[in-house]
Amino acid sequence: MICEKCQKNEVSVHLTDIVNNTKREYHLCRDCAQSHGVSIQAQLQNFKNLTVPEFYASPQEKSETANSPEGLGDCPDCGMSYSNFRKEGKFGCSRDYDLFSGSLDDLFEKIHAADQHKGRSPARFHEQMVQSLEVERLRESLTHAVSDEDFEQAAAIRDQLRILESGS
Amino acid sequence: MSLDNFKTNIGEWLQGTGPDADLVISSRVRLARNLANSPFTSVSTEDQSKAVSERIETALQRLDGGLPLHVMELDKKDVVERQVLVERHLVSHDLATGSGSRLVAFDEAESFSVMGNEEDHLRLQVMKSGYQLEEAWSQMCPLERSLEEELQFAFHSKYGYLTACPTNVGTGLRASVMLHLPAMVITGQIEEMTRAATKIHLAVRGLFGEGTEAQGDFFQISNQRTLGLSEEQVLENIASVLPNIIVYERKLRDELLERRRERIEDRIGRAFGILSHARVITSKEALEHLSLVRLGVAMGFLDDVSMNQINRMFLHSQPGHLQSLVGEPLNTEDRDRKRADLLRSILGDTSGEGFSSS
């Protein structure tokens, strides 16, 4: 069996991952496994913070998402840097939320198991909130449609999403 | 208003009059809000903080349908006065010990309060006696709306109300109830309750909230998640477990009465004896005995003590109140002596000189 990552070497690591009751198997060679932190020791040490999709993402992708907020430099309004935010655990101003948004969804998933506000909103945001919740609802039904392999329905939802998101 | 009223009064939330007040001391909702276009408190300059304070004060003066509010600038209060405000749950420990322009505003009943320039620009709080979380929320909603009209709050269509700490983002809502669960502690059931609460993302903490240990069988249960749930869902989550906790604690109390009546009565009687006769007592010891006496009153053992008296002892025997009542700063030893005097005077012993027993 050939490693599904590099498509060259013989597979030496078989990994089973279960996310939301969906089982997925990964077959990797030793080099690919190790370069992504999958040795037994690394697993013991790192597994708590690393999900399989995270390690399975290509190294470039991974470093991009992890580093992008740092690469942006300090917030022009409050001077907060991403690394300082992670160190202190506190935002400096509202703008930081947009500036660091690339990494916030993961953080909020860990803290709140969610990344979309569903509570009340100021009057000046009501319309925007209705749309934002509609996009969220459509995304969820898109995920369901894809996992049910109902691609016709999925395409229809995708088109709806495109219209909604281009209008915002 | 001077702080003198605090010497004789206790806040409405501590009157012991609300539903299930034998077990639920108080219900509280708080909202974290920040002004749009102003940096959060921790990175604000002194001038920016002052400007925020001023905007908040102006908005509070125009509050629709609101009661007259007492406004106090924390940076102009001494250590004891700030401690008194913390003990009354009007001000957080962080606001009391912070620096720069900070304010607190509250109504006469101490039911509604606003902290200015805490970790967030605004922390709005409504507190009520007993189990009245829904009522507290209903009181909060129009007040928040009215302030929103005066002050534009920082808001994001994806993340909701923006807060300094990621643990408050979204609704900015922390809903909590303070519970007295002595029978669960005596029978070793607290861990079980904590586990059940944690499972549905509720936190169990001590008397003064975050970072404090449970003392004297008092526990605070609050929501942990502020993002991805509506305010109503947060309240429903707490409402889904609270009746079970209340019923269970009552059941355990009945069982204690049935099986270990003499031992429980003895413990409560001894606690009452110490409170009404001690000459020197630490706040930790006082709290432990007050917890048992409170249980005794709830179970009907102690007829000549009222819940109101217990709550007064509970509040006024804390260091800030004690020093404020005596009128001078006291070292720990003197506090322990004055505390014993105060407790005796409230329980009717005339040897507790210097305190009126009214």
Residue share in helix of chain A? 55-70%
From the alpha carbons, calculate the radius of gyration of chain B and give it in angstroms. 21 Å
* Uncertain stretches of chain B: none
Topology of chain A as a string of helices (H) and strands (E): EEHHHHHHHHH
* Beta strands of chain B, count: 10
Low-confidence stretches of chain A: 39-67
Total domain units of chain B: 2
Written account of the structure:
The complex is a heterodimer of chains A (168) and B (358). With 168 residues, chain A is mainly alpha-helical. Chain A has helices spanning 30-35, 40-46, 52-56, 59-71, 82-88, 95-99, 101-112, 126-147, 151-167, and strands spanning 13-19, 22-28. Chain A contains nine helices and two strands. In chain A, helix 8 (126-147) runs antiparallel to helix 9. The longest helix of chain A is centred in the C-terminal third of the chain and has 22 residues, at 126-147. Residues 39-67 of chain A have low confidence and may be disordered. Chain B has an eight-stranded antiparallel sheet with strand order 2-3-4-5-1-8-10-9, with helices on one face. Chain B has a two-stranded antiparallel ribbon with strand order 6-7. Chain B is globular. The two termini of chain B are 22 Å apart.
